[in-house]
Amino acid sequence: MRISTIQIFERGISSIQDVTAQQQKTQEQLATGKRVLTPADDPVASTRILELNQEIAINTQFQRNVELAEGRLSLQDDRLGGISDVIERIRTLAVSSGNGGLSKDDLGSIASEIEQRLDQLAGLLNARDASGEYVFSGFQGGTQPFEKNESGSYRYQGDEGVRFVQIESSVRIQTTLNGQELFEDMPAYTNTFYTQAGEANQANPPATISVGQVIDQELYDAFYPEDLVVEFTSPTTFNIKEKSSGFVLQSNVAYQPNGPIQAQGVQFEISGAPVTGDTFSIESSEKQGLLRTTEKFIYGLRNFSATPEGRGSFDELLESTLANLDFAFTSVLDARGQLGARLNTLETGLEQLKDSEIITQEALGKLESVDYAEAISLLSLQQFSLDAAYSSFNRITSLSLFDRI
């Protein structure tokens, strides 16, 4: 068999290149610390490595979700703690206002502090998280949940949605509380109402209506759950009607700005310059939120009458206010209990995720990590083979027939 000179060179170079490629692969394994560099190195292990890396990525995302949820829940718990403190202070002031020896000026001083506490409450209820979203507005994170209307009363502007975060493949945890459920949907101690101006009113600037007060609970209970409508028949007169039937209860009443208006056991005031056709409604309600309870109590303090009837109305207001504040305090305590339970769940879940991550990393290391002792020995062997290939190539290529002549 004849072997040409070019074949000798090709075989020698090919042998050197093969050993060099093997050596480079071993060096790359040592540099990266990974045994499997491409799927061709170990197809079965490569598939499992891909699965384990996906598990680690999902686990990492779950841990981030837990940290996000912990931050939100801790913030809400902190704000609810502040709200509890303010409710307790308002309740203390309310109890002190029941002292029959206090004058109207004394009650006015109490009202002034409660007004400050009302603004403090609103600030806590309008808390934002680290991303700038309101924490008590449901799904409407960009909407301030409690805003003052044109009459100066707070109204809830969010929705009733609650947000959840996935912390495990089959576990979702609630991370928000909506202000409607927590601060608004509380049973009122007695039948009550809220006031609002008609959306189609034309006065400019708009005329406003006060929060009002029940001054005769028996009379109002007999009328409840009907609603009242005040309709201006001219800029100086108005009618008071039953909303459901349109029946006129009082007609052509002379309008006095900021003057007390009484009907069916309730009292309120309208201020400004209404125009013909403007309406104001007095809506019955079996619920009364925390802010409205506070607003109505401030109204009662500011409009206290030192008559036997006035004292009786105020005592009824005080009794209902204390009961409604207790309802609000209980609602906040229940919410804090739920937050505490969720925080405990997150703590346990985070520990499980970290344990799972360690186990997965260990399994990945066994499949993927290089055995340095074995790789170094192999590299030495490959270097020896490469040296031998170079030596053989040099010896073979140096042979010549002229050496035999």
Question: How would you characterize the overall build of this protein?
Answer:
The chain is α+β, with helices and mostly antiparallel strands and 405 residues long. The chain folds into 3 domains: 5-33 and 370-404; 42-186 and 288-357, f41 fragment of flagellin, N-terminal domain, CATH 1.20.1330.10; 191-285, no CATH class. The chain has 8 helices and 13 strands. The protein has helices at residues 5-32, 43-97, 104-125, 179-184, 217-223, 290-302, 308-368, 372-397, and strands at residues 146-148, 154-156, 164-168, 171-174, 187-197, 208-209, 213-214, 228-234, 237-242, 248-254, 260-263, 266-271, 279-287. The strands form 4 sheets. A 5-stranded antiparallel beta sheet has the order 5-13-8-9-10. Strands 6, 7, 11 and 12 form a 4-stranded antiparallel beta sheet that branches. A hairpin with a 2-residue loop joins strand 11 and strand 12. Helix 1 packs antiparallel against helix 8, helix 2 runs antiparallel to helix 3 and helix 6 (290-302) packs antiparallel against helix 7 (308-368). It is elongated, with a radius of gyration of 40 Å.
